[in-house]
Fold each of these.
Amino acid sequence: MPTISNRGEIMPASPIRKLVPLANEAKKRGVKVYHLNIGQPDLPTPEIGLEAARRIDRDILEYSPSEGIRSFREKLVGYYAKFNIHVDADDIIITTGGSEAVLFSFMACLDPGDEIIVPEPAYANYMAFAISAGAKIKTIPSSIEEGFALPSVEKFEELITERTRGILICNPNNPTGYLYTQKEMNQIRDLVKKYDLFLFSDEVYREFCYTGAPYISAFHLDGIENNVVLIDSVSKRYSECGIRIGALITKNKELKNNVMKFCQARLSPPLIGQLIAEASLDAPDDYLLSVYNEYVERRKFLIDGLNRIPGCYSPIPMGAFYTMAKLPVDDADKFCAWCLSEFEYEGQTVFMAPGSGFYTTPGLGVNEVRVAYVLKKEDLAQALVVLAKALEAYPGRTI
C-alpha cells in the first residue's frame, strides 16, 4: 500500500467540522441538534443577490478572468472606500472564498520553513494553510481572563527569528470576537516596520463591530502599505457562504504578480458566485442594519445566558459573531463529543467547536469552546437550556 504524505498526516482536523459524523448520527436517532459550531448565518441572503442568481441568462458559463471580473473589482473599490480603505481595482484579486486568499497569500509570500506569528486562539484553518505552504505558524497565547487582548510587543519579539516573515491577525477576531484597538494596531504596525514583515489581515467581519471604538483596518496604518495583505469574503456579511467568493487585496505589485501565478494555475474564481456577489454590493442599507441589530441582540442574549450557567464564563465579544467560553469540564473535546453521542435533553442536544482546536500550544483551550451566535434567539434559548442540562449530567464536570 502506498505511503500517504507527511503533510497530510500533520494537517489538523477542523475543530468546527470534525464532529459532524457524530452530529449526523444524532440526527438519525431523531435528536434535534443546535448548531453552535459553525459560522453559517441563518439570516437571509440579500434579495438583490438572490434575484441576480435567478436572472442569469447565458448561453455559456465561461471562465472568468483569473483575477476576477473587472466590473466586480471596480465596484468593490467603492465598497472599501466607505470604510476609508482606498484601493484600486488592480489591487484586488477575487478568490474562491477567503480561504483561498489566505492560502495564496501564504504560497506567494512564504517559503518552506518560513514562520508567521499568530495570536491564539486563532481560526484553525490558518494552521492548515500554513502546513499546505510548508510554513510554520508560531502562536502567541492570549487569555480568556484578559478578554483575549493582544499580547505585549515583547512577547512578539521573543518569537521573531531570521525565518519570521509575517504576522497574521483576524480583526474582528474569529474565534474570540475580540476587536483590536488603535493602540494595539499601532504596535503591530511598528513591529511590521521594524522587522520588515508582511501583515496578513483577515477582516471579513468588519461589518460586525459592537463597540463605540472605530474599526481599524490594516490599510489604515501609515507606512506599511506594501507590507499589507488584506483578506476578505462576502460569506458572512451577505450570508453567502456557499457562493465561495473572497478577495486578496495588496498594493505590493511584486506580491500581486506572484499571487497571480497561483490564480492562473487554478484558472478562475467561481463565475456565478461573482455575479451574485457583485449584485449584493447594492444591498440596501437597511439590510445590513437589520443584520447588525440582530447580531447585537443575539450577542447580549447568548453572553448573558452563558454567564448565568454555573461554572461558565465568556467575556463579551466586541465583534464578529463568535465567543470563546470556559466550561466546568475536564476536556471540552470529550464533552462536545459526549453531547452528540451520549446525551440528549427532551430530544435535543448542542454542537459546539472544542476550544483546543483553535490553539497550537499544548494544554490551552482544554476547557473552552467556541460558540457561534448564528441562530435565532428562540433557538439560542433552547440551546442554553440544553447546555446547562448537559453540564449537570456530564461525568467529567469539574465543579
Amino acid sequence: MNIQWNPEEYTKNFGFVPNYGEDVLKLINAPPGSYVVDLGCGNGALTQKLQEMGYRVEGVDDSGDMILCAGKLHPDIKFTHANALTFRLEEKADVVFSNAVFHWIDEKNQRKLAENIFRNLKTGGILVCEFGGYGCAETVHSALQESFESHGLTYPRAFYFPTIGQYASILEGAGFRVEFAHLFDRPTMQNTADGAADWIRMFVKAPFSGMSADLKDEIIAEAVEKIRPKLLTGEGWMIDYVRIRVKAWRK
C-alpha cells in the first residue's frame, strides 16, 4: 500500500467508501458459514456486513492504525495486521473480498497480489473485488498534474487504474478464471463543504511527500479552481470516480 491513513477522519467524512462497497457484496454467492476474508478491511464496516450475512469472517489490513480502529468498532471480529502481497491465512478462504483497495498497490506488484490471493483461496474459492478503474478521478489528477508542472514539479501517478483487459489478464496469469468484470462511471458526492480539497488531502498523499505545507496548500488551491466548473454541483463537490468490479474463481 502506498498511503498512510487517518482512521478517524476516514470514518467521519469518507463513509461513502464502505457504503458503496455494500453493493459489491451481492456478487458473493457462497453458502452461510463460509470463511470470507475482507482484504484491506479498513475500519471493518464491510467486514461487519459480511458477518451479518452469516459468514465466518476475518479482516486483513496493512494499516496498523486501521486495524486498531476496526477492533474498537467491531470487537467480536478477528482483524489481522498483514500486507496484501504476503499475508498467509491459517485456513484457506472460501472467498476473498476487497473494496477500494487494489488501486493503492503499485502496478508492478499486481501480479504478486493476484498470486498471493490465489494461494490463500481454496480450490473453487472466489475473489470478489472493486477498486478504481481506468479514468478514475481523472479530472482531479489532471488538474493536480498541471499545477505541479506550473511549479516545475512532476506529479507522480501513484495509483493503479486498469482497464478490464489489463486486470483480467493479470488474474488469468495467476490462475484465476474471470467470471464477471464491469467498468463503470460512478460520480461520487463528497460529504464536506470543501469536498475537493478534503478529498485530495485524504487520498492524494504520496505526490506531496516532502513538500512544504505552504506549497502543498497553494497547489491544492490551484487544482480546486481548475476543477470547480466541472465538479462543483448545486449539491456539492462530485468526484468523477470510475470503478472496476470483478468476480473470479480459483480453478
Amino acid sequence: MRLDHIAIAAETLEDGVAWAEERLGVPLLAGGHHERYGTHNRLLGLSDGLYLEVIAPDDNATSDGPRWFDLDNFTGPPRLANWICEPDDFQEYLRHGMRSVAMSRGDLKWDMGVPADGSLPLGGGYPTVLKWHTDTPPGQGLPPSGCVLQKLTVCHPLARQISAELSPAFSDPRVTFKVTEEFQLQAELQTPNGRVVM
C-alpha cells in the first residue's frame, strides 16, 4: 500500500484554492469535475509521485446520492481532511464501510472506496483507498511544484489500532499516527514559502 495523495476540503473551490495557494506559495493547476458526486477539484504535484488535491461541492452540479469525502457535512474554513492510499489488493482494504465505486474524469479511470453515506472511513482516520486504471495517474503526470511532503500525522482516538490494521502493508516513514481526542490530519511540507504546516 502506498500513499497516493492528500486532500483539502472546502465549502467552495475558490476558497480552498485561495487558502492553499496562500500557504504554499505556488498556483494550483486545473483539475476537473466528478459528475457522480457533483464535485470539482484543483491539483498540485508534490515529490515522489504524490499530489495534493483541493476538492469542494460544485453548486452547478447534482450528486448521485451523498457526496464523497463527507462534503455534504463539511463546514468551516478549508482544511486537510483526507488521505488516500492505493493498496496492492484493493478489495482487501475496502473496510470501515467503503464500497467500490467506479469513477472517471476525462482520460482518468479508477475505483474508489466510498461508504454509501458519503462519509470518510473512521471519520478520516483510516485512509480512503483507490485503484487506478491508467498508466499515468495524477501523481506521475503533474509537473513538479517545488513542494515536498515531509510528514503526515494522522491524529485519531483509534490511532494505534489504525496503524496496526494497516501494518505491515503500509509502511511510509513520512506517515505517523498520534492518539488524540478528535480526528485531525496535519501535513508538514517544504515549499517555496519555506516550511508549512497544514
